[in-house]
From TrEMBL:
This is Glycosyltransferase family 9 protein. It comes from the Bacteria.
């Protein structure tokens, strides 16, 4: 693009780099968050343009990063020698999976708020605190039915913290029958308007079990032990094969694999039990 030279992977010493999202949804800011550490170390200055709700997380995690808000005028006005998208950074800083895992640095939530939320939830009863989400506005997703959650909620100990957006009332009423007194819905957390508070909520949990969504990606970027249940459709956010995710070391994938959701839910529940029992990381 004229006037905006693309970074070609050459030495960044003494140069100012601007990083922007050119495609992809919110998950791209979580998937590639860890590569900003080596970028900041390599460049004289690194400016990143982020979705406004994520600015506090990025600024807290990388004090040396020049964090600006996405907007049409911001990119053109950024004083930089070279420009790059997140995928270009991944190509040069994460050329293979072992390298992708090495520099992982979790996003840093508001620790005061994390402690406050955790204390509030534990006041409702003993843990562990397990976050869960079950629904999506994306009609192309093959999702577990509410009844598929019955065994998982009934067999696991602790409190279940809803990470679900939208109208959750009917689903929570049904879940309450299977885990009476152990379902918590915190109306003060709204991921659609305050992502920083949502991040603090997730960081306050012991583990998360969820379908593929923004919360799953954020939990992975925060380093929270997470089990993500995937349908058989292709998802750009996740590897096509395997159970591990190079960009999220704390995440384990459970694939439906052409079976009924009940089988995948049973496997997911077993992995969560391993995590909260301290037996392993869900593998």
């Amino acid at each position: 693009m004229p006037g905006r030279p693309e970074w070609d992977g050459s030495d960044l010493a003494g140069r100012r780099l601007a990083v922007e999202r050119r495609e992809g949804d919110l998950a791209i800011f979580f998937q590639f968050a860890s590569l900003l550490g080596p970028v900041v170390a390599a460049a004289e200055r690194c400016t990143v343009l982020v979705e406004p709700r994520l600015a506090p997380l990025y600024r807290r995690t990388y004090p040396g990063l020049d964090v600006r808000l996405e907007g049409e005028g911001e990119v053109a006005a950024t004083d930089a020698d070279v420009f790059a998208c997140f995928e270009t950074l991944a190509k040069h800083f994460w050329p293979d999976e072992p390298t992708a895992r090495a520099p992982f640095l979790p996003l840093e939530p508001d620790r005061r708020l994390v402690a406050e939320l955790r204390s509030t939830y534990l006041a409702r009863g003993p843990g562990p605190l397990i976050g869960f989400a079950w629904g999506s506005l994306n009609k192309s997703k093959d999702l577990p039915a509410l009844d598929d959650w019955r065994a998982l909620l009934g067999n696991l100990p602790g409190r279940f913290i809803s990470m679900q957006y939208g109208d959750v009332g009917p689903a929570l009423a049904q879940f309450e029958r299977w885990a009476p007194g152990r379902i918590i819905h915190d109306a003060s957390v709204d991921q659609l308007s305050d992502m920083d508070r949502f991040a603090a909520q997730i960081a306050a949990l012991n583990t998360v079990v969820t379908i593929s969504n923004t919360g799953a990606n954020l939990a992975g970027a925060l380093g929270v032990p997470t089990v993500v249940m995937l349908d058989d459709g292709f998802r750009l956010s996740w590897p096509a094969f395997g159970e591990t995710v190079a960009t999220y070391p704390s995440v384990r994938l459970v694939r439906k694999g052409g079976q009924a959701w009940a089988s995948a839910m049973q496997e997911a529940g077993g992995r969560v039990m391993q995590i909260i029992s301290g037996v392993g990381d869900g593998r």
